[in-house]
């Protein structure tokens, strides 16, 4: 990547606002989940935003995470034997994770850009993606999620209702309250004051 000097002025303000969105408590929860999901072999990062970024930067931990959410025999991301050392290979590994996360069901708006992680531009976006992935895993409840289910919010699920023909016919006879009602509607007792006096 290109060497960048320090940011000044508005660029610096924007970057500091982005960095303030990073949540250290959320980092601890995500680390606990990743270790529970992938096993102790993935290790643990140094505390803090940059430690978390270095831990995830080569894409191997992320790839193991998303693979662990799938049943055996259908792992979406190929993990190389040796962690990639070349920059473009590491970025490619992150891109494979992002594609697998999207295929798993993470919404495009919840997915970070590769440079957000690789250059530590927006680590809060990385946290949002991992939170969305964890929420989906808890919601699917297919036996592949490991860890405390209370770490993530369960997503709302569809609750389909089946009505019989007779119930549907009965519903057509009822006027819903949102359409208004005219029961007891009259202008009796209403007064608008004295009529206008026109004198010629």
Description:
The protein is mainly alpha-helical and 200 residues long. It has a domain at 21-149: Calponin-like domain (Actin-binding Protein, T-fimbrin, domain 1), CATH 1.10.418. It is built from eight helices and no strands. The radius of gyration is 28 Å and the shape is elongated.
Secondary structure elements and their pairing?
Elements: H1 9-20, H2 24-38, H3 49-56, H4 60-68, H5 87-104, H6 114-118, H7 123-140, H8 165-173
Protein name: Transgelin
Keywords: Acetylation, Cytoplasm, Muscle protein
Subcellular location: Cytoplasm
Spell out the key features of this protein.
mainly alpha; Actin-binding Protein, T-fimbrin, domain 1; 0% strand; elongated; 200 residues
Summarize the structure.
This protein is mainly alpha-helical and 200 residues long. The chain has a domain at 21-149: Actin-binding Protein, T-fimbrin, domain 1 (Orthogonal Bundle), CATH 1.10.418.10.
- State the separation between the terminal residues, measured CA to CA: 90 Å
Number of helices: 8
Q: Helix and strand string, N-terminal first? A: HHHHHHHH
| Name of the CATH class of one domain | Mainly Alpha
Could you tell me the CATH topology label of one domain. Actin-binding Protein, T-fimbrin, domain 1
CATH architecture of one domain: Orthogonal Bundle
Please count the beta strands (DSSP E, at least 2 residues each): 0
Q: Over all CA atoms, what is the radius of gyration? A: 28 Å
Helical content band:
40-55%
Query: Which class of secondary structure composition applies to the elements?
Result: mainly alpha
Largest sheet descriptor: none
Overall pLDDT? 83
Morphology: elongated
CATH superfamily of one domain: Calponin-like domain
| Uncertain regions spanning at least 5 consecutive residues | none
Sheet-strand content, in percent, reads under 5%
């Amino acid at each position: 990547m290109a060497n960048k000097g320090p940011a000044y002025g508005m660029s610096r303000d924007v970057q500091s606002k982005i960095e303030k969105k990073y949540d250290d408590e959320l980092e601890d929860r995500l680390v606990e989940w990743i270790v529970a999901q992938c096993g102790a072999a993935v290790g643990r990062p140094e505390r803090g935003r940059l430690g978390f970024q270095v831990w995830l930067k080569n894409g191997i931990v992320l790839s193991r995470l998303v693979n662990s959410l799938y049943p055996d025999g259908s792992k979406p991301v190929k993990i190389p034997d040796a962690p990639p050392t070349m920059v473009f290979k590491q970025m490619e590994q992150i891109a494979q994770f992002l594609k697998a996360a999207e295929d798993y069901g993470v919404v495009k708006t919840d997915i970070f850009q590769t440079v957000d992680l690789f250059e530590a531009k927006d680590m809060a976006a990385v946290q949002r993606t991992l939170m969305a992935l964890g929420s989906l895993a808890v919601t699917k409840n297919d036996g592949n999620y490991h860890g405390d289910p209370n770490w993530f919010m369960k997503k709302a699920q569809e609750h389909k209702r089946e009505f019989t023909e007779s119930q549907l016919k009965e519903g057509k006879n009822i006027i819903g309250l949102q359409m208004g009602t005219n029961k007891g509607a009259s202008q009796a007792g209403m007064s608008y004051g004295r009529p206008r006096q026109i004198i010629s």
